[in-house]
Design a protein that fits this description.
Strand order of the largest sheet: 2-1-3
Number of helices: 2
Shape: elongated
Distance between the termini: 59 Å
Strand content: 15-25%
Mean pLDDT: 90
Largest sheet: 3 strands, antiparallel
Low-confidence stretches: none
Structural class: alpha+beta
Helix content: 10-25%
Number of strands: 3
Order of helices and strands: EEHEH
């Protein structure tokens, strides 16, 4: 059965409890879909966003940061309607789908040389380190 969202004034509502949702496996990257409603300067809008994260709380944090940057929406004007974990085939956003490659590789652009042991660390060197790779 589908439940309707009833309109309620802030003064009549009361927060009974707040619980953080802990992930069963926080070391596995998952695709999350977040359906939300937010109030902008021009009106109320519904949207669905997709994120890749290890936890649902991390995906929600990404959503709040993105909504603040792209839409100038504050946290109190955003209502999360539903969240879901998506399979790779169910994703539609290019920003999420670009990481679905099993042979994905990331270049090392700035390699900082480290001493193999603490006794070889030098505070002052006669030349700057070479960090460029390529």
């Amino acid at each position: 059965p589908q439940h309707d969202h009833k309109k309620m004034k802030k003064t009549t509502g009361e927060i009974l409890s707040v619980h953080q949702i802990y992930e069963k496996n926080p070391f596995l990257v998952k695709n999350y879909a977040i359906t939300l409603r937010y109030n902008s300067r021009s009106g109320t809008h519904n949207m669905t966003k997709e994120y890749r994260d290890t936890t649902l709380c991390g995906a929600v944090d990404q959503m709040y940061a993105e909504m603040a940057g792209l839409h100038r929406a504050r946290q109190d004007s955003i209502q999360i309607i539903s969240t879901a974990v998506l399979k790779a085939s169910e994703c539609s956003r290019p920003s999420v789908m670009q990481f679905h490659d099993s042979k994905i590789r990331f270049p090392i652009a700035h390699r900082v040389p480290r001493a193999s042991h603490k006794r070889f660390e030098k505070k002052f060197l006669p030349a700057r380190p070479t960090t460029f790779v390529g």
